[in-house]
Amino acid sequence: MRRKVRVAAYAVCVRDGQVLLARSPAPGGGHEWVLPGGGMEFGEDPYDTVRRELLEETGYRVEVTGFLGVDSRRVTVPGRLGRRTVDHHGVRLVYAAEVTGGELRNEVDGSTDLAAWQYLDALSGLTRIPLVDSALRLWRERPPAGHLTSSAHPLPQEMNEE
Predict the structure, then answer these.
(1) Which end of the chain has fewer CB within 10 Å, C or N?
(2) How far apart are CA 94 and CA 124, in angstroms?
(3) pLDDT, tens only, 136-151
């Protein structure tokens, strides 16, 4: 099994009861809403990554106003067409940001096809990736350690015994 680590940076931009999201093709067809952001390029600072990705995906220039935390997920992706199964570990750095310039537009020839402001109270009706909900929890709760507590992240047995 092949192992892969991907580090990415995303932004939570909220104003007037709405959050800025981007729409991406979903595996198996259809679309799903994602946070604007994406993978770091080699040698790039995550702070610069989030600003670059927001501009690429939404047309907005942003000011990063805070670091909200880390969302870390590990999934096994089955191999297709003769490829090996991948043990994928995504490390997503989540920032708070405010729009400072630019105009809302859709990304051209990228990983998303639509950028839009969505009402926070209407998100439950949207097909979205889990990161949207995790990032909004980080934004609302502002945990001091930048990590959400949940049963999805139990302590290893040896740490429970201390």
Answers:
(1) C
(2) 21
(3) 999 999 999 999 986 4
